[in-house]
Amino acid sequence: MTLEGTITRTNDNTFTGWIASLTFDVDIAISENPHKKTEKHPDFEITAKSTRNRSIRIGSAWNATSQAGNDYLSVAINFGTGEIRANAVKTETDGEYRFIPYSN
Q1: Interior angle at CA 53, CA 80 and CA 79, nearest 5
Q2: Which InterPro entries does the record match to this protein (predicted)?
Q3: DSSP per residue, 15-38
């Protein structure tokens, strides 16, 4: 899947940004999961705004570390057309991450 997007970490450990493909283009917010009770639960909730400006949860994200020791977010998002899996990896810009979709 062709997928582009970036998020930027804010001072309060949330992220804001956008994600887009040929079928969607949305602004997103990623915030800590207030319902996390076990290690298996997602670390973050991903939300977007509906056409009526309602906040809708569209996915989850987990903190992860690569074998090389680099921190990233493992992301699962659903826009109503099925789940999209991607990683959000750090860029050279401080606090910025870009999305890299999983290969199917």
Answers
A1: 10
A2: DUF736
A3: EEEEEE-SS-EEEEEEEE-TT--S
Pair 37, 48: CB distance under 8 Å: no
What are the pLDDT digits (tens) for 87-97?
999 999 989 99
pLDDT at 79 over 90: no
What residue ranges do the domains of the chain occupy? 4-101
Residue listed under structure tokens 């992220």: 15
Closest CA to 80 of 62, 98, 56: 56
Q: Is 58 helix (H, G, I), strand (E, B) or coil?
A: strand
User: Would you say 63 and 71 are in contact if contact means Cβ atoms under 8 Å apart?
Assistant: yes
